[in-house]
Amino acid sequence: MAQKKPKFYVVWQGRKPGVYDSWDEAKVQTDGFPKPLFKSFDSKAAALKAFKDKPHVHIGQATKPAGKQGKIDGLVGLPIQDSLVVDAAWNTATGDMEYQGIYLATRQKLFLKGPYADGTNNIGEFLAIVHALALLHQKGSNIPIYSDSRTAIGWVKKKKANTKLEETDRNAELFDLLDRAETWLQSHKYANPVLKWETTVWGENPADFGRK
């Protein structure tokens, strides 16, 4: 049996761009990274030369998987196991909301909060991300945080929960938590990437409450 030829991997966009001698090394730089750009080459010389070029020179339409889902899979990769995943649950009948966070590699639950009266799912997702950021900041950890809510991720980036929910006596505690979360975001710096959990590729968010 012929010996398999070695491959060399160029990572143009990842945690640490560069040329890697094995897929295991390149995978660490690309898995779970938003929109990574990478490609394999048959020789190290070719890889080193390609690394100096713009990625679009080597990653053209012909190198992309066919079909919309194939393109998504090719860009997303796999989720980073050393990460914290959050999710929220909102009861449409009672209006109660709760949220939780787990460590992905072991599925250990790190926090569970609620239920809070008269909330919304977006508020829960937002509070879950900020809770995760505060917890990891306290621990001195810069691991990524995954959420399946683009809305909540956007709120975190803007450091403001853009909710249209009206404050009442029943949800006063929840609005106090929102104020504290916004204050935390405005007064703290963090290096944790807040990433989208790609449900269409990876399946259900592991922090999901399983009540759908």
What does this 3D model show about the protein?
- With 212 residues, this protein is of the alpha/beta class.
- The chain folds into two domains: 8-57, Ribonuclease HI, Chain A (3-Layer(aba) Sandwich); 84-196, Ribonuclease H-like superfamily/Ribonuclease H (Nucleotidyltransferase, domain 5).
- Helices cover 34% and strands 20% of the residues.
- The protein is built from seven helices and eight strands; from the N terminus they run E-E-H-E-H-H-E-E-E-H-E-H-H-E-H.
- It has a five-stranded mixed β-sheet with strand order 6-5-4-7-8, with helices on one face.
- Helix 4 packs across helix 5 and helix 4 crosses helix 6 (172-187).
- It is elongated, with a radius of gyration of 21 Å.
- The N and C termini lie far apart (51 Å).
- Mean pLDDT is 86; it is low at 60-74.
**Number of separate helices:** 7
- The tally of beta strands, per DSSP, is 8
Instruction: Describe the main β-sheet briefly.
Output: 5 strands, mixed
Q: Which class of the largest domain in CATH terms? A: Alpha Beta
CATH homologous superfamily classification of the largest domain: Ribonuclease H-like superfamily/Ribonuclease H
Order of helices and strands: EEHEHHEEEHEHHEH
Strand order of the largest sheet: 6-5-4-7-8
